[in-house]
Amino acid sequence: MRFGIDRLDLKGLQGRRIGILAHQASVTSDLEYSFVKIKKAGGDLKVIFAPEHGLYSVKQDQVQITDGLEPLTRTPIVSLYPPARWDHRVLDELDLIIIDIFDVGARYYTYLWSAAELIMATKGQKVIICDRPNPIGRRIEGPIIDEELFSFVGPYPIPIRHGMTPGELLSFINDRYLNKDIEVIKMRGWNRGYYRGPWIPPSPNIPHLSTAIVYPGGCLIEGTNLSEGRGTTRPFEQIGAPWFEPTKVIDEVGETRGVTLRPIQFQPQFSKYKGKVCNGIFIHIT
What we know:
By secondary structure, the protein is α/β, with parallel strands linked by helices. The longest helix has 13 residues, at 166-178. It has helices at 34-40, 111-121, 166-178, 209-218, 246-253, and strands at 17-21, 44-50, 68-70, 75-79, 96-99, 126-130, 141-144, 159-161, 182-185, 238-241, 259-266, 278-285. 17% of the residues lie in helices and 21% in strands. The chain has a seven-stranded mixed beta sheet, sandwiched between helices. A three-stranded antiparallel beta sheet has the order 10-12-11. Strands 7-8 form a two-stranded antiparallel sheet. It folds into two domains: 4-185, Uncharacterised protein PF07075, DUF1343 (Rossmann fold), CATH 3.40.50.12170; 224-285, Aspartate Aminotransferase, domain 1.
């Protein structure tokens, strides 16, 4: 598979002042960070924009990220999270913006909304989007969010599981709402199913492909009094609470195509029920 970043014309970057939105899963097919590749090719990389969790995904959800300096390229990092708080004057120093984001295909995953905010803020700069697979494939599920419920985890009317790649989703948003100068560098070799390449966690609580697959539904548990597994090594794949009765739930659900439910216990180290043993279920993708 060749990602968009693998097919980017590096010679066309010469003489242009560049900013890139990326994170630790923004790598070439040889597992080189996209921002390192651009820097090594002689690109005038002025700034790296980072989404929620930070460039190297070291922060948990909803934690404010401060600006910093990327250690490999010595390039300034500008955090786009929390939204609408970064200094737009940094754009005055740029001619070109590159977006290279590995998303997980769910509406409430914030990275592509940071990308949309960055695109909306451009002041005549061209935006190049290096496309990547949607790791959970083309399937579309869930309701379209109502306009009165729009927020940073749902700012546009799309379903929960949208089935689009980053380039497709941002093109969809741009065509209908933003009308900015964007170009998508397409990938090659994706079969439109689950992503089977090396998995680099795009955020701290998506450690595996299986986590990404259950995330569109598992994240909804955040709005309940159940633990969604944050604070454990398998968030969203295991849910529960100290008072939860897993065997009753498993019996009620019965056989379900594509998953097997297993009764477990787990103890979150942070988030809901921190330090308490929870009875729960583990969701195995079959």
